[in-house]
Specification:
This protein is an alpha+beta fold and about 150 residues long. Helix content is about 25%, strand content about 30%. It starts with a strand and ends with a strand.
């Protein structure tokens, strides 16, 4: 099941974002302070025991632009389309909010292409570059992320 994140989910979301495997795509870590401040951005996937097994956030950038970020599904739950459902839930929320352009920076472009995102020139997303990229250990010389965008 996919649902909005709750305050008692923050520690699990933090664990998901902090403990991705080296062979997995990079997910920028978030501090507890950032997670509490942006909790309303997150949706989570939960298993039958209501344990958080995935998360994704819709971050509003500007009046006409939002970002899909912090997408993680625990390895044992992959292949069940939870990543797709998390992203689709965020896209639905974007439409509800009246935001019709959503982007992501990803090391998994094929996944997002299957959802309808198309590759975009990174330079066109300069608002994002100055926000999170400056804090990334891979910026600027070792970034493997691809910018992808979807017009809803």
């Amino acid at each position: 099941m996919i649902r909005k994140a709750r305050i008692d989910d923050v520690k699990k979301i933090h664990g998901l974002l902090m403990h991705t495997e080296e062979h997995e795509a990079l997910v920028l870590p978030r501090s507890f302070s950032q997670l509490y401040s942006h909790l309303r951005d997150f949706v989570v996937a939960v298993d039958d025991n209501d344990d958080v097994v995935g998360c994704c956030a819709l971050n509003i950038i500007w009046d006409n632009l939002a970002e899909i970020r912090s997408l993680v599904v625990v390895p044992s739950q992959r292949g069940r389309k939870l990543g797709r459902k998390l992203v689709e839930t965020c896209l639905s929320e974007a439409v509800t909010l009246g935001i019709y352009k959503v982007y992501t920076l990803t090391e998994a472009p094929d996944f997002f292409a299957h959802l309808g995102f198309v590759e975009e020139d990174m330079e066109k997303l300069n608002q994002k570059i100055f926000l999170d990229c400056l804090n990334c250990a891979r910026f600027p010389d070792h970034c493997n992320e691809v910018a992808m965008i979807m017009n809803l």
